[in-house]
Amino acid sequence: MNEDKLIRQCKSGSRTAQRELFDAHYRTSFRIAVRYLGNHHDAEDVVADAFIRVFNGLHTFDVRTEGSLGRWIHTLVINESLRFLKRRRLLVLEEDMALYDDYTPESFDASDFDAEQIHQVLTTMPAGYRTVFNLYAIEGFSHKEIAQLIGISETTSRSQLCKARSFIIQRITNNVSHENV
Amino acid sequence: MKTSEFDNMIRQALLEEAASDDAAEEVARGRVWQKANPPKMFSLTAVLFRVAAAAILVLLLTTAYFMWIQKEQPAKQMAQKNEIRMIANSTDSLVKPAQNVVFQTIYRDRFVASVITHDTVVMQKTEVVYSTAYDTVFIEKQHISEPLIAGGNSHSNDVFPIENTPQKQVRGILFWRTKTAFPNNSATADVRRDRKKQPFTIPVISAQ
User: Fold this and answer.
1) Would you say the pTM of this structure is higher than 0.80?
2) Which of A104, A171, B70, B77 lies 20 to 30 angstroms, CA to CA, from B54?
């Protein structure tokens, strides 16, 4: 079923269409939520809340191009994740830069890199780093936009991003060192 | 490595990782769907359509109900009177039809009849005033909207026993019935037009 037809059926209250829409976007939404929250349990709640917003707000959604529904849902999931972090006061911004001074992308050896490892590192990262890194490096928001989204200054956003990169590099490097030992 | 390259590499790694299966994620799918519990949505058009359909249905039901009530009500009244039998100018009637008796009814021991229905046109003129006499006659009803005038007084129940006041003036179509269990099973009604001093009809009603 194409997106336009699916949306029309969802708006008319078809339970089957709503389930189809949910199934089509669940997986990506869940991955996004896990990426922001760091665990499956919270991700379940956030994705459920996000889909409630999707179903309630679908009548206001205007299909412009194919795939725009997916982007809209993913935006809702990101917003819901940020709302969750703020509500639970989990968005703590770490300021101890000295810990990661030696770990910069310039010194990073890409051969140490493992795709599965990065996901694990992201889940253990402090929420502040993880949020800014996700918004900047993955979603492509600017520091100005991030500052507005989570209510911090642009400088804080930049410093959180630097720390996030250093955190990732440090964890990957150390992990590789441990494995070699 | 430049920071932009590093970021891009991380992004690609996450995309790769996202393509892989996650058992926990699939287990959570049903729970998340239950939590989301999508509400039944209505578009404005659908709501308006349903309201309009409900209004039409209510209107139709109300109309049907009132039509049924109107049809049912006389039937109920008839039923209360226990088998009213209409004998309209019938030759085998217990009561011989009198002249100008339009219909007559046997109701238990009483005889109910209406007369001068043919005079409707005349009676609709306000100057035509009828008087009735004879003690066995009740003026029961009239078919016009204006109240009966009996001795200058209007009565709410439209029943005028006339044995005590033999002279009644009634304007309108006259219906009368004989007094309950009249002694000789006969009743006589004399109806005339006073002002024209002209006997109108003297139906002699008798039950044998």
Assistant:
1) no
2) B70
Range of the domain at A148: 97-180
The domain ranges of chain B are: 1-38, 39-80, 85-206
Taking CB atoms and an 8 Å limit, are A10 and B16 in contact across chains? no
Q: Are strands B186-188 and B204-206 parallel, antiparallel or unpaired?
A: antiparallel
What is residue A29's predicted lDDT score, i.e. its pLDDT?
A: 92
Q: Which of residues 2-41 of B touch A (CB under 8 A)?
A: 2-3, 5-7, 9-11, 13-14, 16-18, 22, 24-25, 28-29, 31-33, 35-41
Of the residues A60, A87, A114, the one at which a domain ends: A87
A131-157: pLDDT as tens digits: 999 999 888 899 999 999 888 899 989
Residue B71, pLDDT score: 66
Domain boundary among A87, A120, A138: A87
Split into its structural domains, chain A has a count of 2
Q: Which residues of B29-44 are buried (b: 16+ CB within 10 A; e: fewer)?
A: beebbeebebeebeee
Nearest to B46 among A12, A136, A138 (CB): A12
- Regions of chain B short of the pLDDT cut 50: 78-208
Give ∠ CA A146-B5-A27 in degrees, rounded to 5: 60
ipTM score assigned to the predicted complex: 0.81
Which residues, 6 or more positions from A180, have their beta carbon under 8 angstroms from its beta carbon?
none
pLDDT, mean over chain A: 83
Q: Where residue A172 sits, what CATH number does that domain have?
A: 1.10.10.10
Asked if residues A161 and A137 have their Cβ atoms less than 8 Å apart, the reply is yes
DSSP code string of A47-93 = HHHHHHHHHHHGGG----STTHHHHHHHHHHHHHHHHHHHHTT----
Q: Which long-range contacts (CB under 8 A, 24 or more apart) does B111-114 make?
A: B111/B177, B111/B178, B111/B187, B111/B205, B111/B207, B112/B140, B112/B175, B112/B176, B112/B177, B112/B178, B113/B175, B113/B176, B113/B177, B113/B203, B113/B205, B114/B173, B114/B174, B114/B175, B114/B176
Q: What stretch of H or E contains B72?
A: helix B44-80
Instruction: Note whether A66 and A132 are same-domain residues.
Output: no
